């Protein structure tokens, strides 16, 4: 880091001073309230001229510049230590310096005021996820807003103050009870809300705000249960591909978009924006919206046919919810998807067992799960599939794909046949 001082208006009789802070390829101009007659400024030393009887305050003036330079470097080091060595953006560094130098008086920060600022920074693209080291996505930000609304409702209904000091183990228990009994959310949705609270508390603590440390305890857990999700096998995908939708252009476009997801493993937020510039030498190269990670995927023949059908300019994406509705309209046209699927989950504290026709469970995310499961069944190396889906561990990947006991048995039999273990002796 380099800190150099300059006059803001060197040609005027008097001028204020600013610090030009250069670090890691970034630059910040930080303006000071200090001013002096420009004739008494030494551009070489970047300080007031010494031994100047016309400006006897020069020792104190230069000392203040020395102190500020030390403060700048100290604040920068502390920020990096507190943020896993991340480099602050110039706007972030300015904000911290304003507080450190007393330009900005820090008001008493409440949990809700901090949370609202957290959301505001997220919406402006100023908040960086500590996990991905990238700006957070709009969908992620919507979830945080929902959590904030639930917290405010909890505080109002129970006349119980929610603040940094009160978010403890007792709060954790009572809040889960509220989300379960009053709001009647599922276990995994409750877990998402707890996870967001932990994230906000963690960021606040890293910024020097005094918080209750219970959120770091193993007792401040994120509720979770394994869920039943479907995938579409290769035969079912062929049926969807071959379905005559010539009388409904809207459903035909939705079907085509969905199939791209099924044969690329991309999320809806990625395959819905696929364009010609993402295709190079029969390879799809795209930076994922959720993680900002770059993935490279070979163009499947089905995907290539769809891209050529639209001259590599896919129809404008519709909302995720609308597409989910239309996918069910497509699925219900296939008798093969009338098979009943039984789901078991916990909602509102009650265990629910309910059966649905398979088509009723199809959503945009079914495409990605179908890709992962079908490639696994086909014998594609797990590490190769994970490179596309983005799963970090094999354990997480195997939880993600959905295989029945029969499919596991068939997979084992297929491997035996490859090794000629089933030949007649």
UniProtKB/TrEMBL annotation:
Residues 123-142 are annotated as: Disordered. It holds the Pfam family Phage_integrase. PROSITE patterns: TYR_RECOMBINASE. It comes from the Bacteria. Residues 225-414 form the Tyr recombinase domain. CDD domains: INTN1_C_like (cd01185). PANTHER family: PHAGE INTEGRASE-RELATED, PROPHAGE INTEGRASE INTD-RELATED. This is Site-specific integrase.
């Amino acid at each position: 880091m380099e800190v150099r001082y300059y006059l803001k208006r060197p040609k005027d009789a008097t001028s204020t001073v600013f610090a030009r802070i250069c670090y890691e390829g970034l630059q910040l101009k930080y303006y000071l309230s200090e001013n002096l007659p420009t004739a008494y400024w030494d551009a070489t030393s970047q300080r007031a001229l010494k031994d100047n009887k016309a400006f006897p305050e020069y020792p104190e003036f230069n000392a203040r510049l020395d102190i500020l330079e030390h403060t700048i470097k100290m604040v920068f080091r502390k920020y990096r230590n507190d943020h896993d060595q991340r480099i602050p953006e110039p706007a972030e560094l300015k904000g911290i310096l304003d507080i450190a130098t007393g330009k900005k008086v820090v008001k008493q920060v409440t949990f809700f005021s901090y949370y609202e600022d957290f959301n505001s920074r997220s919406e402006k693209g100023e908040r960086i996820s500590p996990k991905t080291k990238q700006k957070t996505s709009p969908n992620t930000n919507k979830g945080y807003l929902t959590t904030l609304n639930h917290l405010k409702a909890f505080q109002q209904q129970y006349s119980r103050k929610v603040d940094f000091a009160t978010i403890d183990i007792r709060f954790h228990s009572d809040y889960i009870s509220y989300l379960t009994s009053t709001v009647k959310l599922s276990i995994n949705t409750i877990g998402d809300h707890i996870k967001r609270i932990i994230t906000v508390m963690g960021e606040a603590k890293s910024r020097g705000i005094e918080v209750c440390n219970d959120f770091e305890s193993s007792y401040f857990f994120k509720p979770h249960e394994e869920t039943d999700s479907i995938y579409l096998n290769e035969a079912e995908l062929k049926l969807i591909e071959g379905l005559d939708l010539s009388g409904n252009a809207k459903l035909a476009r939705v079907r085509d978009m969905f199939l791209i997801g099924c044969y690329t493993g991309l999320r809806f937020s990625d395959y819905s924006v696929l364009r010609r510039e993402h295709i190079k030498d029969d390879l799809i190269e795209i930076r994922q919206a959720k993680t900002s990670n770059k993935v490279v995927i070979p163009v499947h023949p089905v995907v290539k046919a769809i891209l050529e059908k639209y001259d590599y300019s896919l129809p404008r994406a519709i909302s995720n919810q609308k597409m989910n509705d239309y996918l069910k309209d497509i699925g219900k046209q296939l008798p093969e998807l009338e098979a009943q699927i039984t789901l078991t989950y916990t909602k509102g504290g009650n265990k629910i067992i309910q059966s649905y026709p398979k088509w009723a469970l199809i959503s945009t995310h079914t495409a990605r799960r179908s890709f992962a499961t079908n490639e696994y069944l086909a014998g594609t190396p797990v590490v190769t599939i994970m490179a596309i889906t983005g799963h970090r561990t094999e354990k997480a990947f195997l939880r993600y794909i959905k295989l029945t006991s029969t499919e596991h048995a068939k997979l084992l039999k297929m491997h035996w046949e490859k090794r000629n273990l089933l030949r007649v002796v």
